[in-house]
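Marked as duplicate of an earlier ticket. Keeping the data here for the record.
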Amino acid sequence: MIAGIDSIRWFDHFETTMGHEAEQAGLLEHSSIVGSAREFIVKRVLRSILPPIIHIGTGKVVDFHGKKSRQIDIIVYDSRFPVFEIQSGIGIYLLEGVIATIEVKSTLTKKSLFEALDNTLSILQLTPGLVSTTASRWMARANAIEAEGYSRKEAMRKAGFEFMPATYVFSFTSKFRAKGLCNNVDKWFCAEGKPVLSDDYCAVLPRVVACGGGLRDVL
């Protein structure tokens, strides 16, 4: 119980520190510098809580067909896979090694939300390859899903989605209330033709859209 309380205090402290550092970054005049500074803050927090085997980078994700994603703010990567970097922390990352992606926004507006969702879509439109370590687990999961009553084709597709990276959107502040955020996500979803991976399975959306600083209405 004490450990749990200490963990909560630790994360509360991090939240406060991140807020102060984000405000300091906002004093910079160039918007791209502000964005980079705030991405750095998030990366530093992740490095402090993730094991050393996890690599934190920025760049694009590529699948086994050679198709690339859009530029991604933060890529959480299994360093046991090859890392192709043009400089430290910036490069091209194999889809099979990507654990999660995070889009970082200073303030969540309709424009920045749609940009983040577009980047998320570019990740989930990639095709994972059946590398040796993944193939057996993929097949085992597909077999388990098929045993639940799904067809083999459905089971393979459903299992495939589970091997895709988790995607997230994080913003330090927001101009939305919760209802406005949901409405705008729905607008993007409909405008993109209600994108799914295949045959109405697994809507292409982030796992979580997290906003700090309180949600409020868009004026």
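See parent ticket for discussion. The helical segments are 2-25, 31-49, 110-124, 132-147, 152-162, 178-191.
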